[in-house]
Amino acid sequence: xxxxxxxxxxxxxxxxxxxxxxxxxxxxxxxxxxxxxxxxxxxxxxxxxxxxxxxxxxxxxxxxxxxxxxxxxxxxxxxxxxxxxxxxxxxxxxxxxxxxxxxxxxxxxxxxxxxxxxxxxxxxxxxxxxxxxxxxxxxxxxxxxxxxxxxxxxxxxxxxxxxxxxxxxxxxxxxxxxxxxxxxxxxxxxxxxxxxxxxxxxxxxxxxxxxxxxxxxxxxxxxxxxxxxxxxxxxxxxxxxxxxxxxxxxxxxxxxxxxxxxxxxxxxxxxxxxxxxxxxxxxxxxxxxxxxxxxxxxxxxxxxxxxxxxxxxxxxxxxxxxxxxxxxxxxxxxxxxxxxxxxxxxxxxxxxxxxxxxxxxxxxxxxxxxxxxxxxxxxxxxxxxxxxxxxxxxxxxxxx
Length: 400
Description:
This protein has helices at residues 24-33, 46-55, 60-75, 80-90, 94-108, 113-118, 126-138, 141-198, 204-237, 241-253, 257-278, 283-293, 297-311, 316-320, 329-341, 344-399, and strands at residues 2-8, 14-20, 37-43. It is mainly alpha-helical and 400 residues long. It has a three-stranded antiparallel beta sheet, covered by helices on one side. Helix 8 (141-198) runs antiparallel to helix 11, helix 11 (257-278) runs antiparallel to helix 16 and helix 15 (329-341) packs antiparallel against helix 16 (344-399). The protein is extended, with a radius of gyration of 29 Å.
């Protein structure tokens, strides 16, 4: 819940702003921790809350840029409080600027950076917060933000490439179904009237097209409602544990696409492991945090089981070897080499680069295959409709 407040700081200067808290008592406690004397505090209007939650958000790209800026300022020996004050004043995104202001206020009240960031889980993930906490404990905060910036940059580039690769095929598929629906509901009925009035025999393939056209005209709205309802039901099923696990398992079983997803998750796992080890995160915490952010229920379940095995004294490579279908033998073998040689982090970095490169190649190949296939599909679909209707008309014209 958003609260508007006015307060005096310890220097007597008047301050005003907003704070996100579960209740007014929590908000008051948080402001008092910042050494503020509250003069007024009240819930923000629903309009403001709606605007902040719906019309404003913090993108991954903005977090990448922010992490790079924080790393640069920490390297220049700028204090943490000054860093977040400076960046809050430079942000074009009002929501992010407000969050950074709240982080700076928490720092001024004596809170460590990781705890201040943890108050905003929708912007700073559990992975991000734990990385910062590790940097604070090891005294390598500037290096940690540098690792975070590099990691987020790699992740953003990889995910963006995969998402952008799907835009063109999605557009072609949408265009295909739109053109087909318009032809079947507007063009075909007018042309079919000529065939019906001629009382000539209608070929079976033409009759099938006419039947499909009649179905869409009479039941198209019902079909649209069913499709929307099915989409809503599917979306809600993904919110349940069983539904999400089934869908994630289905994605991994798809030909070619499943292999692409597998490489993407393996790249993410290796990259997370490498980045957290460099920042001094313990192995058990490293696996646990990765399980929470891997974004696939199947690998999440595997990593949680691996965490329990490692906690019980099993080596990571031995724990990984129990899942040969999801984790390839080459990855398990390289992890074992890293454990034996003491170069675990370096091996993970190599694995991350390897799988990231494999994902890039697979995406490029998929795009090269999909583009001509979509164009051919669009042409063949429209061609079948035209031939099915125009050929009987041509035969009718020749009869006269």
